[in-house]
Fold these 2 entries.
Entry 1:
Amino acid sequence: TELWQQVPLEPPDNIFELTAAYKVDPFAKKVNLGVGAYRDDDNKPWVLPVVRKATARLLNDDTLDHEYLPILGLPEYTTAAAKLILGSESPAISEGRAVSVQTISGTGANHLGALFLSRFYGFNGPAKVYLSNPTWVNHHAIFRNVGIEPVDYAYYDPKTIGLDFTGFLDALRKAPDRSVFLLHACAHNPTGVDPTPKQWDAIGDVILEKKLFAFFDCAYQGFASGDMDLDAWAVRRFVDRGVPLLVCQSFAKNAGLYGERVGALHVVLSDKKTADWARSQLSVLQRSEIGNPPSHGARLVSLILNDPELFTEWKRDIETMAGRIIDMRKELYQLLTEVYKTPGKWDHILNQIGMFSFTGLNGEQCRAMVEWAHIYMAGNGRISMAGLNSHSVEYVAESLDKVVR
Ligand code: PMP
């Protein structure tokens, strides 16, 4: 043991602790609003019907084996995944200047993208990445792991419970040329606050002017609006405008494949030659990191993306999930504003996008929700809309009302 005396004990992660406390709580009306995964109206994990169908096809396909996939992943998968996010008519794809790599879900895509930047990006000074304040907590660790220092940029304004657009633009303008900005493509985690198309265009103007690099994280395509194309709008717009960028893609949420770890990294370069060189280096990095990527999840998603019938079914399943979440927003909003007439403005519940919502509750109110109402939520006021359902929404609204009064 004396070899490991330098290892300090790390305190447990808040969200995991919250879930553990929820599980042992005997209170009948307890609610878990901390979960980062979709739940159906009965608070159960949902295996998408299209995934069940595709799984059955894979199981019955006796031509499949367990050989290694190519280092960069299953080609039918990465090609279809690129079209899904960049658009099937994307000039980046037709001009051969997009490089796509199969990754260990969105986390692996962020890691490989960060690692690639740390090795090859022309940083202007020390390697830094600008992260929205707040952002998905893991972003900090992922960039630190590869020696890129995270720096905050203004994003969320607690006064308006919305976007600090002026602060955001200011940060873009003040950053050194060629700085890397991490952008959530849609359904910002944890705030649920996204820029409007007009705001995206203004952000794009500064990015182009200052030759900044856009590191897009897209973990929720389809989850924001229910429409895959609409949720990819900002990424496609930036590609069209010639913004240098990469995109991290995950099928955890939109296909409910959390544990299968299906993702991709897409790097869009200026020409085919640069793309070929980048591809060769990404292969080297991938090999030393994970070797060959796993096959099952990639085969599943490949089947769904490449079979028009399954693809249509998938889009319906996504609408089911996104629709339920949007309905919960409406119901919670209505209960607060019309039934309980809760003090304060609650428009943000309706306007925020995706699985998460920043309620605007302060730390003390959050603690009261947990300790007094048995409604488990993060101390920053974030709730997961997926934790709400027709059985729990009234109790949540009633408790919110009591806690803020
Ligand atoms: N990025 C963001 C913003 C996320 O919210 C998540 C999931 N919590 C991920 C990436 C990665 O998720 P996964 O590795 O499961 O795809």
Entry 2:
Amino acid sequence: MDRQELILGQVLSFHGDPITEGVAAARIERQGSVLISGGRIIGHGPAAALRAAHPDARLTDMSGHLISAGFVDAHAHMPQTAIIASWGKRLIDWLNDYTFPEEMRFGDRAYAEEIANRYLDLLLAHGTTSVASFCTTHPASVEALFAAAEARGMRVAGGKTCMDRNAPEGLIDTAQRAHEESAALIARWHKRGRAIYAITPRFAPTSTPEQLEALGALWAAHPDCLMQTHLCEQLEELDWVRALYPQARDYLDVYERAGLTGPGALFGHAIHLTGRERQHLRESGSSLIHCPTSNTFIGSGLFDMAGLAADGQRIGLATDTGGGSSFSMLRTMAAAYEIAQLRGAALHPAELWWLATAGSARALGLGDRIGNIAPGMEADLVAIDLASTPAIAQRSARANELWEAIFPTIMMGDDRAIAAVWVDGHRRQIPPKGNETVSG
Ligand code: GUN
Ligand code: ZN
């Protein structure tokens, strides 16, 4: 058994979903502490009481910092790390001009490993301890992601992106190859350590109905895998789906017919939905993943957080890098706030933080393991500096209550706010801020 570690700080935990149950479902213990050992959270509570009860525990004093579960990014593209912030395109041109040429490079195993390692280091530097990521069509890209995650002890979901049409030759597989290669990766990686396999058809336009059916059959054979794809992101894409699938009642129906909806299905974007789609998403127990920086960056539209939450949908939050313009879940919360404002609703900081942690974990079916501070949960934690820049510090110093002190970090914070990260109970060295150089 590892020696126990007692982390002192302002401890944020959730006792319910603040979006549906009210913000009192989020609690902050000001003079709090979290006791961890053997990769698990043993308990949390007042610092004085836990210090007295566990005098032999190693003390890590983060007093004044916010101690939270590590961020959970529910939809991202590791292979797009190096093309984040590419200028001037909407979805389909952005895919053809920037994304597919970059994804072609992942046939080279060494390049895949370099980017997978760089990507996970960037995530940890931003306080993100878990991600559900797309890879490329190449199985080597999945190997690279899971190996990099295993080396860091991270709970990561990922999968081979399947495409058998409407993409360059070098990225195309077939229905059969998608099934076989995904099945082999499931056998090798699913539930190995903390790894979770996500069956990954990219989106309806790049798969034939046969490929989607093959992946539906694969998911039926491995129902504890996740299934991740894109849904109703941009209006031009909806027109394309209608032309490619004239029999389908709507976009979601393309996936529904192939057996690709239900608990564990993660639908990125979900902006332009019909009433029927909303009903089936909710009734099937599928998850909707809100990608706000991507939706403004690529010009996709405004996710209906208030309406979808009122429906009772399961909603996660995600960067969608590199369509999304930031690796930071703080910046992503800020963008979610701004999009909700444009739709006339203000998301409370407790609601935003829940989406970035426990909400995303629940969307991934991992709400009992990650995304919250509670006894028995896995010890993936972050310590957040609530005064990480002069601009943030001067505003939070004015705050009358704690959420008001946290909100400037949500709106203006970045990796400089991440003071410490624990993964699987181990403190991880996070790279120095700002001035490192990387090649490539
Ligand atoms: N739709 C299909 N592929 C992608 C992708 O890589 N990024 C985004 N944002 N949307 C997609
Ligand atoms: Zn995406």
